């Protein structure tokens, strides 16, 4: 972490509000199961893509600070699509994947930051999983897990800095908390019928 950087009240609040939800999802992720294979990974990624596309479309409509580099951050659907194309799907197949009708939609920066906290934070765990799973799934690029690659840590720090600068009031912090919780719950509800267990982003 950058020297002198302090964890902000909003980051503490988001961690506290989502700790249990995050732990429950992590514990049941198919990505940590011993029977994970390419078919299970692809099935999971299809579901994640159907949730991520409408969520990112909503985030892209907000007026983000330039320093956040929103166009680069809210394009994770491309990583998911890259994994599916490598697995043999084509563009028509991707277009046919159903989008989640209940994906959380941000109405302002505070709710947007709450949702973004969930999807940005997931890149940290993805980096660990990439190292673990790439030898087991050699036929796939695992772009979604690779995420920002070597820039993952730096980008997370930058996100924290922007979060701290733009979500300051108690009302905005509560709104960010509710939006982050909604994102976790929406994801779990969307993927559970298909993958048979509750899974993390």
Automatic annotation (TrEMBL):
Any matching Pfam family: Heme_oxygenase
Task: Write out the GO MF terms.
Answer: heme oxygenase (decyclizing) activity
Q: Determine the domain of life of the protein's source.
A: Bacteria
Q: Could you tell me which InterPro entries the record lists for this protein?
A: Haem_Oase-like, Haem_Oase-like_multi-hlx
Q: Which is a GO BP term held by this UniProt record? A: heme oxidation
Name listed for the protein in its UniProt record: Biliverdin-producing heme oxygenase
């Amino acid at each position: 972490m950058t020297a002198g950087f302090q964890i902000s009240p909003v980051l503490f609040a988001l961690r506290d509000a989502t700790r249990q939800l995050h732990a429950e999802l992590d514990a049941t992720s198919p990505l940590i199961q011993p029977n994970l294979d390419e078919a299970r990974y692809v099935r999971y990624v299809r579901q994640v893509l159907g949730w991520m596309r409408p969520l990112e479309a909503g985030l892209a409509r907000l007026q983000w600070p330039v320093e956040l580099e929103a166009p680069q951050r809210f394009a994770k659907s491309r990583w998911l699509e890259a994994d599916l194309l490598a697995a043999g799907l084509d563009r028509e197949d991707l277009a046919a994947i159903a989008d989640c009708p209940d994906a959380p939609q941000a109405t302002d920066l505070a709710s947007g930051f709450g949702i973004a906290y969930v999807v940005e934070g997931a890149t940290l765990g993805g980096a660990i999983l990439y190292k673990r799973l790439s030898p087991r799934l050699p036929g796939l690029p695992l772009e979604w897990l690779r995420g920002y690659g070597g820039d993952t840590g730096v980008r997370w720090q930058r996100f924290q800095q922007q979060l701290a600068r733009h979500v300051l009031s108690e009302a905005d912090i509560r709104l960010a908390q509710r939006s982050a919780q909604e994102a976790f719950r929406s994801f779990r509800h969307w993927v559970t019928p298909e993958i048979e267990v509750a899974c993390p982003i």
